[in-house]
Amino acid sequence: MKRNKLLTLLIGVCLVLALVALPLMTACAPEGEEEEEEEEEEEEEEEEEEEWEVVEIGFLQPITGPVGTHGVNNMQGMELYIKHLEEDGGFYVGGEGPYTIELVSFDTRYDPKLAVTGATMMVERGIKIIWGPLGTAGCVAASDVTWPSGCLQTNYATDHTLKHANLPNQFQSDTLEERAIYHADKNSNARSVLAYPVPRGCQLTIL
């Protein structure tokens, strides 16, 4: 009889302990499951995250040599632009993207022969847009490579050689400098001429 009472008491204690432990186990389990679910969701988001497409742009300018500082400034400006572009989520073309830009640089040292070498390397690499070179001689020399390939070239030529050649792949960016040179040449007393864009054209200041 005593043995039966003892067994009954033992079973009762076990049931009480089980009932006490059950809420604790139930409270702990979801937290671990939630962490696992969050980790799985993060992994899925990383897998679903769009991969960036890279557009290579040729940077064909002097980084060393007599006007190397000018080329370095241009490169730093472009790198800063790319940084801001990526922070804004890149750019899209026809609904496809996101795209970012990678500069492929070649130091021309302000030498037309090196401009041809760099342009050839970039065209063979499959680059479709070249920024440079600096100076008319380098731009004209490089155009012999970029024009047949259809590669777009933004140049800094101050001479009208490329403009008169009517090459549709050439984009001359030094029109303001041309105007400044013209007015400085016509004004014998001018020490310098500042040219800068305004909303309705170009503002010239003769010093």
CATH-assigned homologous superfamily of the largest domain: Response regulator
Uncertain regions: pLDDT < 50 for 5+ in a row?
A: 9-13, 15-22
Query: From the 3D coordinates, which CATH architecture of the largest domain would you assign?
Result: 3-Layer(aba) Sandwich
Strand order of the largest sheet: 2-3-1-4-5-6
What is the alpha-carbon Rg in Å? 34 Å
Element-level helix/strand string: HEHEEHEHEHEHEE
Shape: elongated
Strand content: 15-25%
Keywords: Signal
Biased composition (Acidic residues): 31-50
Region (Disordered): 30-50
Domain Leucine-binding protein: 55-155
Secondary structure elements and pairings:
Layout: H1 2-48, E1 53-61, H2 68-87, E2 91-93, E3 96-107, H3 112-125, E4 129-134, H4 136-149, E5 152-156, H5 161-164, E6 170-172, H6 175-186, E7 193-198, E8 201-206
Parallel strand pairs: 1-3, 1-4, 4-5, 5-6
Antiparallel strand pairs: 2-3, 7-8
Helix pairs in contact: 3-4
Quick structural gist:
This protein is 54% helix and 24% strand. With 207 residues, the chain is of the alpha/beta class.
Q: How does this structure look, described?
A:
The chain is α/β, with parallel strands linked by helices. It folds into two domains: 53-173, Rossmann fold; 175-207, no CATH class. Helix content is 54%, strand content 24%. It has helices spanning 2-48, 68-87, 112-125, 136-149, 161-164, 175-186; strands at residues 53-61, 91-93, 96-107, 129-134, 152-156, 170-172, 193-198, 201-206. The strands form two sheets. Strands 2-3-1-4-5-6 form a six-stranded mixed sheet. A two-stranded antiparallel ribbon has the order 7-8. Helix 3 runs parallel beside helix 4. The protein is elongated, with a radius of gyration of 34 Å. Mean pLDDT is 76; it is low at 9-13 and 15-22.
